[in-house]
Amino acid sequence: MDMTLSDISKKLFKNSRKQYGLFFFSIVFSIAMTGAYGVLQYSPTVTNILVDGGSTQTISQAMFFGSMSGIMIFLVYADNLFLKFKSREIGIFLSLGIDRRSVQKIVAKEYTLLFQIAALIGLLLSVPLAYLCWAFLNVFLKTQETTFSIGWTGFFIAVLFSLLNWMILLTTNRRYIKNVDVLKIIKTSDENEEAKTGKLFLLILGALLVPVGIIAFFTLQNIGGFINTLLAFLGLAGAVWGVYVLIIQCASVGDILKKYQERAYYKNIVFYNLLKQKIRQYTRSIFVATLLITFTVFGIGFIAAGFIDGYHVALNEPYDYTINATYEHPMTEQRIYEIAEESNATITDMERIDCLLLGVQNNYKNGVQDWSSRIVVSEKNFRALTGGDIFVPKGSYTVYYDSSMDYKLNAFSSDRSLFYNPVTEQECLFIQNEPICRDGLFNTRSVFSSFLILNDEDYNAISASLTNRYKAVSYMVNVENWKSTSDFQNSILQAVVSDNHGVIFTNWHNSATFAKTGSQAEYLPFEGNETRIARVWSLYPLSKLSSTTTQFEAFATYLMLMLFIAILAFVSAVMVMGLKLISTIWEDAEVYDDLWKLGMKRKKIKALITKQMLFVYFIPTVLGCIVGAFTTYRIMLVSGVIYIDETMQFVGWVCGFVLIIQIVIFFILRELCRNHC
């Protein structure tokens, strides 16, 4: 019976259904994960709360594109594995006398059909996958600002990512067929890639490059400037390369043991040689999985740092309440006492501070200048509140800040600054005095974590020329047992909202420089925008109670985004490692069979399989957790986080949880793989 080329292709396809299915699933999974990530990363739900150029936006986007790079490496690996299993088919076509160009067309046609169908399914699944994950998280963190929305920009990026991968893999496949030796291709499954000898020096070098590169990245990035930024990213590249070198040397650890611990090497010689023979395949998948586990730990640790730090800062604030209001919508001491009495709250202490909102020209250390609105108080008011002896000469100003606002000094690097009066539109030059840094004077989350102090005469002269729109008053209040004053908190909030007629001037804190920056006033109705207003309105009445409860909701979108990233990264890491484990067992099945024929007992063979699986599965888990935890620690050091120990304890629990999940999955996969052999 004559067989056509099409019949031969169908026959070969049926004989390799597992390999085709594995490659197909790898594409679907990769594109679906990328698309789901993009749909949320660029959704209005997320972009509306991420500050342009802010650290959270920068880090989340870096993780997005970093994940895409890792997934691209994974797809290249999956394609190489697919080609290896197809090599016999390619060899059969070539041995039948079919020219290479025709074979390229056959493989390209088959590959294109397979990839396009898988990519289309992955793209179609990305939106419902994003929705399901977001809906699951929304069960625990549902707020007005966490409603699911589709980021079509992210979906379009996923489409481009699919096309890019298709072209890269298609080019790789064509080149493979063009250059392959027909005699070698028939026996390709018996060949192993050549590996370089493991060296203790490179192992140590890789271990050093990772922490040094991470330290350099965050330190230099925080300093700023083009050269420092360039060196920072070189440091980051060095850290990534260090991870890669470390993995290679771990896979070649047998060579190092042979030189320094010969007995230990020969005791497990088969295992170490299997590692070395498969080194390139191991390193690709382990490298990608390590990066994904790093993203998992870092993503959760980074966002948790803000919550943990904010929670503990709130508990240790000097005042239980900071009640703010403008002179257009005043709040009086008598009224606060009346609300407290109606709410069964007992006020034990109350302080008042008046302030102005003026435009100030910022002079940064890199020479850049811009305008911003700043809170200004009088030296008399500051002296009365703090009890300190402060003197501000006429025609000068003093910067006050607490330790959480160190970065503000970058804006006052010059010895003088221009002040702008938004009513008279006049500018006046003031000399800068030595800054004052003190903690515990004011609540750090209030507008008084940093402000400027003027001479009384200067302050009064400017105040007389300003309208009430640019004047504000704050009351710092302590109560008995703040944890049981929820009624007082709610009543104060409703009173402030009522004074503003239910419509909030959300960017009041920038209003003094609208003429300089070209910005416009933004008014939002409080009803329906409660969580957004709590997040952006500088005059929002703050309390320890709101900081530890309701303020949590204001940042729920940040938390959900990072949790989503962590979930996708972790699931992707599990899939990468799972694919590698399955492919490893398939590839080494003949080796295990040969070992059995040579007399090795089944028990020993299963132990050998377990060792290989332990290496593939837990090297990325351990490395990823260590690198992720260290990266979180470094970013906290340069971000002014106060309660680092508490955050690192939480990161430790996250690493332990990841490890427990990995152990459970490992035992399931181990039984499947051992039973297969």
Describe this protein's structure.
With 677 residues, this protein is of the alpha+beta class. 65% of the residues lie in helices and 11% in strands. The chain has 24 helices and twelve strands. The chain has helices at 5-15, 17-41, 44-47, 55-95, 100-141, 152-179, 182-186, 200-223, 226-251, 253-260, 262-267, 269-277, 279-315, 333-342, 379-386, 456-465, 486-499, 514-517, 530-536, 544-548, 550-554, 556-597, 602-638, 644-676, and strands at 321-326, 347-363, 369-378, 396-401, 416-420, 427-432, 436-437, 450-454, 471-479, 503-505, 523-525, 542-543. A hairpin with a 5-residue loop joins β2 and β3 (369-378). α2 (17-41) runs antiparallel to α6, α8 (200-223) packs parallel to α23 and α13 runs antiparallel to α24 (644-676).
Report the uncertain regions: 188-194
The total tally of domains equals 3
How much helical structure, as a percent, in the residues? 55-70%
- Strand arrangement within the widest β-sheet reads 2-3-8-4-6-5
Determine the mean pLDDT: 78
Total beta strand runs: 12
What is the general shape?
Answer: elongated
In terms of structural class, how would the helical and strand content be classed?
alpha+beta
Largest sheet: 6 strands, mixed, barrel
Tell me what portion of residues adopts beta-strand conformation: 5-15%
Distance between the termini: 37 Å
Cα-atom Rg, whole angstroms? 31 Å
**Number of helices, counting only DSSP H or I runs of 4 residues or more:** 24
